[in-house]
Amino acid sequence: SFDVRGIFDNEYKSIDPDTQAIVSSLVPNLGIKLSDLPQSPQNGDMVFVKDQKYRITEVQKDVHGGARLFLHKI
How far apart are CA 65 and CA 51, in angstroms? Predict the structure, then answer.
C-alpha cells in the first residue's frame, strides 16, 4: 500500500452503439505519473479515491510517462 497523487475524473459518456439506443455511463478514471509508483499498476489492483474503493479495469499508458487508470467502483 502506498500514496500517490493523481487527477480523478468521473466523466459522463453517452454512447450510441449503432442500435439507435443511447447508453449513458459514468467513467471514473485516475490520471497518474508512473514514476510516482514503485511498480506499474495492473488490471485488478485496488485504489482508494476520497475513501471510495475502486478496482482498476484498464491501464492506458501514454508517451509522456503517465497513465490513465480506468476504474470500477466497488
Answer: 26
How would you write the chain as a 3-class SS string? Answer: CCCCCEEEEEEEEEECCCCCCCEEEEEEEEEEEHHHCCCCCCCCCEEEECCEEEEEEEEEECCCCEEEEEEEEC
Burial of residue 43, with CB atoms counted within 10 A of its CB: 0-12 exposed, 13-18 middle, 19 or more buried: exposed
At 36-57, the pLDDT tens digits run 999 999 999 999 998 899 999 9
Please give the model's pTM, rounded to 2 decimal places: 0.78
Q: pLDDT (tens digit, 9 = 90+) per residue, 11-34?
A: 777 777 787 676 777 789 999 999
Query: What is the bridge-based pairing of β-strands 66-73 and 23-33?
Result: antiparallel
